[in-house]
User: Fold this.
Amino acid sequence: MVKRLALCVAAALIVAGCATMGKGPTDEELINSTLQKVKTALESQNLDMLMATFAEDFSHDQVPDKATAREMLDMGISMGYADDGECHLDRVSISMDPDGETASAYPVDLSGPAGSISVELVLGKREIEVDGKKQKAWLVTTINPDGV
Assistant:
């Protein structure tokens, strides 16, 4: 009887454990996590943190690659363009492409002493390695500023 009860309890715990263990964060949660990291990095002028949100294949028609983007951002920070800068995410809407591999976050509102601008962040689903483990992440693949 005790053995049977122990087996039933063990089976119930296994089933309950499987039911409560999700598949990890949703795509929208991962995208929001990336957006929060972008916000924190911009407002703290942490270029390394910001660049960690950029995909290795980042590109833009005026910035050919991630390395060039880093150089330009570093120059802007050095010149004081990011001083007292703010990044507002309260109006952001996330749109997923049907392929499930690309998403858009718009508008990301940026402001500082030089003025303000809204940008669209285009993100791609990528696999990254964190502490030796591969995991899914959404990284910035391009930036589309309004009016530019």
